[in-house]
Structure formats: structure tokens, C-alpha cells
């Protein structure tokens, strides 16, 4: 489930070549829906093997790796609580996430983006999927599993004519 702004963002991505985009997954696969970033990246690696980084729970450990890749656009996929129905997909710019509490991780999205931006002039976006459950040891909810599959189809469609 996506809103008009998010749909327009995905449509605008068609102007990019997939080789200019880096997909970054963030999350803890042991905490139900929090693992949606890494789970999505696992599937994206099959389509875009050279353009995906799964940072797990420690994105700060991958900042230099991201900078060395020097992408034009970075799409960070993560479970983000933005008070929507579970499984909702929404795109955020860094400034929208700079207020604490919206992300499920200790490193703020603003700090992560700022650290990357010091090394490269990439455009950075967060693709948030509203979690239903963050319980340790629980499987991903059906709503978030469906959103993950929808996001994968969107990326396949968006970059079907602009592949690496």
C-alpha cells in the first residue's frame, strides 16, 4: 500500500539507471518486521547483485563501503514506524526522519545521511515499511511480507529498462 507521493517518487526513479542506485537494507532479522530491510535486500541481490548492501543492525559500519561505491542515489530500506496501517510503504527524505523516535535503530537517520553526504553527493531516501510486530523471535507479519514483495515488484518494474 503506497500513497500518491510515494508512487510519484517511484515513477521518477525511471529516469535513473539501476547502476546509479544503491539499495541499503537496515534491520534486525530476529525482530519480526524489523528484518524487512535485510529480507528485501536478500531478494534484490538476485536482480541487482552489485547494487545492494545489507547493513543489518549496524549501518554505521558500512558508511565507508557506501561511499566507495559512489552511487548517485541511495535507497535505504527499513522498518519505520510512521503510524500507518502495517505494511504501508512510504518514502522519506532524511529531514523528515530527523526527529527522534520514528526509526527503530539507535543511529539516527539524519546522522547516517550526514556521514554519507560528507563523502559523496548522493541523494539519500529512506523507504519505510510500517511494521506490525517487532517481537524477538517472531516471524515477519503477513502485511510486511506482502509489502516486501510489492516493493520488489516496484523496483523490478522501475528498473526493467535501465538495468546494469
Q: What keywords describe this structure?
A:
164 residues, alpha/beta, Rossmann fold, five-stranded mixed beta sheet, 5 helices
What does it look like?
This protein is of the alpha/beta class and 164 residues long. It has a single domain, classed as HybD-like (Rossmann fold, 3-Layer(aba) Sandwich), CATH 3.40.50. The chain contains five helices and five strands, in the order αβαβαββαβα. Strands 2-1-3-5-4 form a five-stranded mixed β-sheet, sandwiched between helices. The protein is globular and about 35 Å long.
Which regions contain 5 or more consecutive residues with pLDDT less than 50?
100-104
Helix-strand string: HEHEHEEHEH
Q: For this structure, what is the CATH homologous superfamily?
A: HybD-like
**Count of β-strands:** 5
Tally of individual domains: 1
| CA-atom Rg in angstroms | 14 Å
CATH topology tier name? Rossmann fold
Overall 3D geometry?
globular
Share in helix: 25-40%
Structural class: alpha/beta
First-to-last CA distance: 28 Å
Amino acid at each position: 500500500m503506497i500513497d500518491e507521493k510515494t508512487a510519484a517518487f517511484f515513477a521518477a526513479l525511471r529516469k535513473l539507471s539501476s547502476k546509479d542506485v544503491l539499495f541499503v537494507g537496515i534491520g534486525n532479522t530476529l525482530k519480526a518486521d524489523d528484518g524487512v530491510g535485510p529480507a528485501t535486500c536478500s531478494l534484490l541481490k538476485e536482480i541487482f547483485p552489485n547494487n545492494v548492501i545489507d547493513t543489518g543492525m549496524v549501518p554505521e559500519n558500512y558508511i565507508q563501503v557506501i561511499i566507495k561505491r559512489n552511487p548517485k542515489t541511495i535507497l535505504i530500506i527499513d522498518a519505520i514506524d510512521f503510524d500507518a496501517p502495517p505494511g504501508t510503504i512510504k518514502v522519506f527524505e532524511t529531514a523528515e526522519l530527523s526527529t527522534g523516535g520514528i526509526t527503530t535503530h539507535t543511529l539516527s537517520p539524519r546522522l547516517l545521511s550526514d556521514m554519507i553526504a560528507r563523502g559523496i553527493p548522493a541523494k539519500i531516501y529512506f523507504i519505510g515499511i510500517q511494521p506490525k510486530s517487532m517481537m524477538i523471535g517472531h516471524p515477519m507479519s503477513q502485511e510486511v511480507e506482502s509489502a516486501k514483495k510489492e516493493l520488489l515488484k516496484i523496483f523490478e518494474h522501475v528498473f526493467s529498462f535501465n538495468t546494469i
